[in-house]
Specification:
By secondary structure, the chain is of the alpha/beta class. The protein is built from 4 helices and 7 strands. The protein has a single domain, classed as Beta Polymerase, domain 2 (2-Layer Sandwich), CATH 3.30.460.10. It is found in: Cytoplasm. One of its GO terms (cellular component) is cytoplasm. This is Ribosomal silencing factor RsfS.
């Protein structure tokens, strides 16, 4: 079953929030056919640890306004790769070096990409 409308709405909101804080690359991946625990991965990257934190805060604030609270947040202390689990979507905010090293898009290349409609960012990467 493809991602729900609510998941897509949250993913687009997360992408726009990341773009507001100048994320360098934003990608959405529909993992609903592969994972039972979530529908969409949103992956965004930043050049510095400080920017990673700013993106994370903006995403959380934006989705909270839509009535979605994070279930879990991991990796905040190091600021290199923060995962925010909202249940319907999981947002990965990675430092550019972690993004290049772990290549999450390559790991999930068999899943369809989601058009996030984020303006002013480089999208893609697969």
């Amino acid at each position: 079953m493809p991602a729900t409308d609510r998941s897509l709405e949250l993913a687009r909101a997360a992408a726009h929030a990341a773009a507001e804080k100048l994320a360098t690359t934003i990608v959405g991946i529909d993992v609903s056919e592969q994972l039972a625990i979530t529908d969409v991965f949103v992956i965004a990257s930043a050049e510095t640890e400080r920017q990673v934190g700013a993106i994370v805060d903006e995403v959380e604030d934006s989705l909270r306004e839509m009535g979605s609270k994070p279930v879990r947040r991991e990796g905040q202390r190091d600021g290199r790769w923060v995962l925010i689990d909202f249940g319907d979507i999981v947002v990965h905010v990675q430092h550019d070096e972690e993004r290049e090293f772990y290549e999450l898009e390559r790991l999930w290349k068999d899943c369809p990409e989601v058009d996030l409609g984020a303006v002013g960012t480089e999208q893609g990467g697969r």
